[in-house]
Predict the 3D structure of the following.
Amino acid sequence: MTGIEHALILLLLLTGLSVVARRLPWPAPISYVVGAGLIGLWPAFPRIELDPGFFFLCFVPPLLFSDGWLMPLRDFLSAKRPILTLATGLVVLTTVAVGLVAWSLVPGLPLAMAFALGAVVSPTDAVAVSAITQRLKVPARLTAVLNGESLMNDATGLVAFKFALTAVALGTFSVRAAAMEFVVLAAGGLSLGLAISWVIGQLRDVLQRIHGPDVMLETTISLMTPFAAYLAAGALGLSNILAVVAAGLYAGWRDPLRMDAATRQVTWTVWSVVLFWLNGLAFVLLGLQLPTILATVSATYTVSQLALFTGAVSGVAIVARLLWFYPGGYVPFLLLNRGANAEPCPPRAWLLVGGWAGMRGTITLAAALSIPVTLGDGTPFPGRDIVIFLSAGVIVVTLLLQGTTLEWLICRLGVRPDDTQVREDRLARIAAVEAGLQHLRTQIARDPADDERGALRAIIREYELRLSELTADGDARKTSSRSLAAERSHRLRALAAERAALDDLWRRNAITDETHRPLQHLLDYEESLLNGKSIPGA
């Protein structure tokens, strides 16, 4: 079978397992791994050989780029101190603690490979954490720290992982030399990533001025940007991981301002599909490799040993994070946070939630599966299978233990959202409506024709009503909100009736696809506006 056929089989398998996972009470990645593992035992299922280098190239750059792209730059800069301490200190602590425990417990595991295991399990999973924090609306500051930490510890953890693999391959390692090399590679990678993203942004501006907005071209360029940053940094011997992160941060700052509405919506939709594929396929591929990995590690270690190794490594990773957050989270505020601009110390509940939000996911898995199969001389890469097995074990333990209890902990500790987002939302809506209203009033003051004047007056009345609803206080705003909710419900029912009539005409061949499709798209767009969502191509 060809690579394309394998890719199609994997996507079909991911689709089927996603349908099943929606009905099961645990996180979807667990279903992907178990389901794919069971299917991998079927002798008739095609054997899919995994190229570690190709896997890393396909998965890691877009995942890191999307994390940077989705990270609000303002929130990142406002919480840079806790984010950077988590991305450096916590990653180092986890790498060293997990590495030493794994090295002392697992017979025959080289020390450098044990540190590679510690580095690979140090990054947390942004998708798993944000799925819970967004649903429960935790405070904006805590959300910014957790999202920013997930972005940066992905980068630092993967850089440490690369250093550890190099030490395994070369057989030597110097902490001082590695630290100096890291500074050079990191600075160069960050600078190059920003430069490449800036150049691509300028190119997109030029193309837009020459040819006008091109949704498909813009979306394609956006998808290719992380690979451009990754490959360019690799060719120059710089940190390709940090180059991708920097490119994503710049693109996330630029794109909302320079893209037109249709391009933003299509790009967002395409990226959502790509990330769904990548996050799911990583676990599906692990499941398919699992029978072989289990057979290899079972030939060397007993079941009780494997359970002990997995429990010990997972426990150290969880405890190290809890210790760093609480009580370690108070240390910077006690030692460094002085003077007039001192920040308030975070509540204890925030630190406990942050410490428990340590689920591991796709980045950990992608890095583990990217470990080369052999060394340069053709001998098997030492400890590869046990490191992949233990990495998968940490993912499963943290998703089942922390992923299923984090929501309960947030509710139990009474962590509630502050009013930051509500205030900013109201401010933005009022400013937007006032700007639109000012433009309309300017237009009507120019004495347009009677029919145009009537249309302008109707739109002005609608804007004035929206402004009065936004600026109302207390009970008036609550009454207005109930009125708007009722109006929205009636409008949605009316749209459903319109769509049913339109679909009936199409089913009876009274109208063609060319008539049905644009009108259906228009109704979808109106529904998306009422629901506060976007649709592709709108």
Observations:
- Residues 533-538 have pLDDT under 50 and may be disordered.
- Residues 261-298 form the longest helix (38 residues).
- The domain at 3-337+345-418 is CATH 1.20.1530.20 (Na+/H+ antiporter like fold).
